[in-house]
């Protein structure tokens, strides 16, 4: 056990035995190794230095790289003095000069060291011996004996009360993480099935906060992002309730769109993609495609936003809209199906909505 | 003569003949084409009424796709163009001044390009006047209406984020659409062209008419677009400013490849000079 596990065993045939890193036993050189007389390198058994020519070449390359690192470091100091900051443009120049010189200095230094190791230092094979993993039998016996002695002296075997109350103290500690799991709840209940839209709520333009008058939104090919009145800044509500409002030419609307949910060829769809809930609002007025930028789900806005490409499984839900007495667009009701991506308890909400419609 | 007869049946002969015929056709066209340009120049410099001059320019450069009276034409696989009745002078000014029209090749997207030689502010005004006379529509905004220095970039940014960034990116770098179409970058567009695009909805772009997005709000958005366009990238290259996807791509492809190459270089086994 006194054996140093990191000790590197030299192959037997290497004579003289010598630990790597210690000065050579022969010669009068300093610890740094003064050049031996006669330009004849000392030859160690099994150690092969690269030939003179390539070593000299490597030395020149490494020296050049060190010189570059030196100059780049000087350049760093110079850049710090020369390029003063103050404006964004000046900071940009300063950042570039400081970062560039520092990167060059460190890179050149590292490259020089790699060249040194690869071209000048010798190459040889080392055999590293591993001792067996298991301890010796007497040591293991000793440890077992010590353990038993300790247990005996602590009194945990004899003092029953101590032992049992200790176990009692430990048991609920193990349960604590399970208690924290409760914070994953409460269950959403029916909140995923509803948005804040309800009968009579006005449609407000996102960004301007103005209500939309149907007569103003009169250019076919137009699109607006709209939000419910009173919830313009309620991000939790908007995460489900944001709409896209599209104005069509009457002849462009296809049968998939529920016409009695539109007003004067203005159709409102949920902006929340039914795949994973990204805002799908890349609308092409020529093809009536609504593209979701996350996974390229494509919906045909003219045909009830049915899916024509991509991973979305359902059309974007359509919101029933109409106008109030002043001509502003309002909701007729909430969506009849849950908006956004699927969830575990969703079931076939479309079929249920159809059944409700017939009932 | 004999050699021609001998090579007449060479497999490449038919291509040679085709090439010859095409060159001839091109040459003849090049000889005849300048006539048209002279006529345009006369119209451009003339005192003729804008609408009449515009009608002639329209007949020469636009009618092949949009029909002789701008009523639109549809030919399967051939030159087709939508009706221009009611699109307004703003649409003409946008399309022609940005080089999108006349279209070079029919395809999913009409790209911005260098305008043709006949295009100048006068000829654009004339064609625009002609199209405006057909059925009205949005007109070209005054310079004051699009002056970025008179807009509020902060308000414009809010509107831009609500209405534009889904396609044009948060700093107007553009992005892809469906089936080969794309939303172009906004950097090359002049303030007037940005206004006209919002008002007319060119190509796949939706319309943002003046009654839902007011002219003042449009000017705010122009102020925002112009101000972000001029912002420097203090962190170095903006990589097209299209967001974390490119940055991640560069980091993974370029950065990690370099690290792997360095690791290979450092750890590569050097061949022993001489063996035992």
From TrEMBL, chain A:
Is the keyword Chaperone assigned to this protein? Answer: no
Q: Which domain of life is it from?
A: Bacteria
List residues of the Rieske domain: 235-330
Q: Which cofactor does it need?
A: [2Fe-2S] cluster
Q: Which compartments is it annotated to reside in? A: Cell membrane
Give the principal location in a single coarse category: membrane
What family is reported? Belongs to the Rieske iron-sulfur protein family.
Q: Name one Pfam family in it.
A: Rieske
Q: How does it sit in the membrane?
A: Multi-pass membrane protein
- For this protein, the parts annotated as crossing the membrane are 61-83, 95-117
Question: What UniProt keywords apply to this chain's record, in alphabetical order?
Answer: 2Fe-2S, Cell membrane, Disulfide bond, Electron transport, Iron, Iron-sulfur, Membrane, Metal-binding, Oxidoreductase, Respiratory chain, Transmembrane, Transmembrane helix, Transport
Q: Per its record, how is this protein called by name?
A: Cytochrome bc1 complex Rieske iron-sulfur subunit
**SUPFAM superfamilies (UniProt xref):** ISP domain
Map out region (Disordered) in residue numbers: 1-37
Q: Which organism is it from?
A: Sphaerisporangium flaviroseum
**PROSITE patterns assigned to the protein according to its UniProt record, in alphabetical order:** RIESKE
Functional description taken from the UniProt entry: Iron-sulfur subunit of the cytochrome bc1 complex, an essential component of the respiratory electron transport chain required for ATP synthesis. The bc1 complex catalyzes the oxidation of menaquinol and the reduction of cytochrome c in the respiratory chain. The bc1 complex operates through a Q-cycle mechanism that couples electron transfer to generation of the proton gradient that drives ATP synthesis.
From TrEMBL, chain B:
According to its UniProt record, where is this protein mainly located? Answer: membrane
* InterPro entries, per database record: bc1_cytC-su (IPR009152), Cyt_c-like_dom (IPR009056), Cyt_c-like_dom_sf (IPR036909), Cytochrome_c_Oxidase_Subunit (IPR050597)
SUPFAM superfamilies linked to this entry: Cytochrome c (SSF46626)
- Transmembrane annotation, as ranges: 249-268
**Topology of the protein relative to the lipid bilayer:** Multi-pass membrane protein
Q: Which UniProt keywords apply?
A: Cell membrane, Electron transport, Heme, Iron, Membrane, Metal-binding, Repeat, Respiratory chain, Translocase, Transmembrane, Transmembrane helix, Transport
- Does the record bear Secreted in its keywords? no
Q: Where in the cell is it found?
A: Cell membrane
| EC code | 7.1.1.8
Q: Where is the Cytochrome c domain?
A: 49-229
The catalytic activity, as recorded, is: a quinol + 2 Fe(III)-[cytochrome c](out) = a quinone + 2 Fe(II)-[cytochrome c](out) + 2 H(+)(out)
Q: Does the keyword Acyltransferase apply?
A: no
In terms of superkingdom, the source organism counts as Bacteria
A Pfam family annotated for this chain is Cytochrom_C
Q: How does it assemble?
A: The cytochrome bc1 complex is composed of a cytochrome b (QcrB), the Rieske iron-sulfur protein (QcrA) and a diheme cytochrome c (QcrC) subunit.
Protein name as catalogued: Cytochrome bc1 complex cytochrome c subunit
Q: Which organism is it from?
A: Sphaerisporangium flaviroseum
The taxonomy runs: Bacteria, Bacillati, Actinomycetota, Actinomycetes, Streptosporangiales
